[in-house]
Task: inverse folding
């Protein structure tokens, strides 16, 4: 009986886009949540309520 071993490794090329997307998303949430412009803040506030993100 022969057993095959499959080695799975994640290359840096596949991790970088995921990390970039996470950092960009968190940055957008942080910036829009703390912005002083009332229109942008109100829009972000409504989105946070719609998605269940705590904001108060």
Result:
């Amino acid at each position: 009986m022969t057993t095959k071993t499959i080695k799975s490794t994640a290359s840096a090329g596949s991790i970088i886009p995921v990390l970039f997307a996470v950092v960009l998303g968190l940055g957008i949430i942080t910036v829009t949540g703390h912005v002083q412009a009332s229109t942008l803040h109100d829009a972000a506030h409504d989105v946070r309520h719609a998605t269940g993100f705590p904001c108060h």
The chain is about 65% helix and 0% strand. The radius of gyration is 20 Å. The chain has a mean pLDDT of 79.
